[in-house]
# Entry
Amino acid sequence: MNTTGHLIALLLPLLLASCLQSEAQSVTERTEGFVTVGDGVRIYYVEKGSGPDVLVAPAALYLEPFLLDDLSENRRVIFYDPRNRGQSDSADLSSVSLDRQIADLEELRAELGLEKMMLLGWSSYGLEMAVYAMRYPERVTRLVQISPLAPAASILEQFGDSRGQQSDRFAIEALDQRANEGEFDETPEEYCRLRSALTIPTEFVNADLAKRVPDDCQYPNEWPIHRSPYFRAFYSTFGDFDWRHELKNLNIPRLIIHGREDRIPLEGAKAWVEGYKDARLIILSPSGHFPFIEQEAVVLEAIDTFLDGDWPQNARGIQSDND
# Structure
């Protein structure tokens, strides 16, 4: 064999390995885009990873920095921003509702060619993902709910929702008054950041960790002048809700993760679990409304274990009083 032949023989395995490595990287690299749903609104999504198992979750703005890389090592993970949130389009508030956002997820699923998926929902989206699973049980294989809103309005009425009670109410009112007088008309992003500095730390046990919350004020959807009307429109469509009856027919494994110090009542998290053999609860402390920040490693391990088909060791079922 001549010198050229020897070089080719030596280099060919390296070239093949390099090609295979590049192909693997192209499969797992982070990509993003938009899906246009039926009424013309563009829904932003970001994804990473590959494989037959797919995890889908709203609130990309908040979840992606903490969950995307680790959870996508063994599966495909897709995070998206609901309409009027994050990088998705701002739609007319008349189109904002629980039903419309569930329809948006169904259109996103179909557009991305997903036959079945696992779902993850944080905060009010914990309830929303459960309602989607109730309506489309054939599409959902597993459900993770982090700091979820209670499954019934009566639970909130009974135990309350103390979010904001630890905020400096007078400082917030003074800031809002300045905004109402037009001080921030030209600088709404500044107003957003000043207000967040007063409210977000109260969602944590360790207020210093509030600095890790992604800067949502970079997106106009998250400015108070837009976000507050969105939430009023969204929650007004919930009515006097009680999803516990429909929940009895949802026969998929469900993992609920809730911070003991979260001011969304723990009784609501327990209600998602109590009496259901396929549902288990993890209570974390210290942790407020952002357990994926305050207890990041524990939450990642628990979710990863659950999505792989096992129950985390610290997950517990709750027997019903009637059992």
